[in-house]
Amino acid sequence: MESELLNFFNRVHQSYAWWQIAIQLLLIGAVIFWVVRFLQGTRGARMLKGIGIVLVTGYLVVHLVAQKFGLGQIEYLYGNFLVFAGFASIVVFQPELRRGLMRLGEARIFGGWSRQVGDEIEQLVESATFLSRRKIGALVAIERETGLAALSENGTRLDAELSADLLNTIFWPNSPLHDLGVVVTQGRIAFAAVQFPLAESGELERELGSRHRAAVGLSQESDAVVLVVSEETGDISIAESGRLIRKLTPDSLRGLLNELLGRGDDEDVKRAAA
């Protein structure tokens, strides 16, 4: 098997110049890196890694065995299997493909936070502190590069200036919009009463409820930073890239938001996650 593998690489080396091989490997590596980075933090990422390892290993084994024992039929059948696996992947990764189309359609080239981002973070921290002390549940998604308009189409459009008073009013018990989540876009409260996608129950601790599942679920499906306040304990948490940072103080929340939204440093995140 080792000699067959060496012969395979020797034939490749004789067929192509070294710089051609290097360019092809760089292009393939760039595509793989982009796909893995695109799916990072999603449920599809783990599945993609598993499928990739199985298919690559299978291809090498089948190709070498077929050449050694003259089993061309097996190599032909495996090639057809790869085509079938490609179509099956479209079905398996349908949520990730949908998220990719959303990114292409909604990504803002010149998007970002307004110049008053520091004041807006203060409003978020003030509201989270107020709601935490009174054990009032809250769920706020701060949009970054990936637009959330398609997700928010079934919510209630507000397009109001971000303020702690307005957030407190929205999440006050029995108010018309207190259920579900709020979407903040470019420093404005764009939508309220928005249903966020839920993470799978097995991915979180059992004591965490639907708000935390929704926060992690949205952070898996987009690059949004999601602020969540527990109704049971009053704990403040941040979900980002599929991870949940819990039990934040107002100061650690401020530092973490500054870091995630581009105005902090690494020490802020370390202090927040401690």
Descriptive notes:
Helix content is 57%, strand content 13%. The chain is α+β, with helices and mostly antiparallel strands. It has a seven-stranded mixed beta sheet with strand order 2-4-3-1-5-6-7, with helices on both faces. The protein has helices at 2-15, 18-39, 43-69, 72-92, 94-106, 117-133, 149-152, 164-171, 210-221, 250-260, 266-273, and strands at residues 138-142, 156-161, 181-185, 188-194, 225-229, 236-240, 243-245. Strand 3 (181-185) and strand 4 form a beta hairpin. It has two domains: 2-92, no CATH class; 117-273, DNA integrity scanning protein, DisA, N-terminal domain (YojJ-like (1), CATH 3.40.1700.10. The protein is elongated.
Secondary structure blueprint with pairings:
Layout: H1 2-15, H2 18-39, H3 43-69, H4 72-92, H5 94-106, H6 117-133, E1 138-142, H7 149-152, E2 156-161, H8 164-171, E3 181-185, E4 188-194, H9 210-221, E5 225-229, E6 236-240, E7 243-245, H10 250-260, H11 266-273
Parallel strand pairs: 1-3
Antiparallel strand pairs: 1-5, 2-4, 3-4, 5-6, 6-7
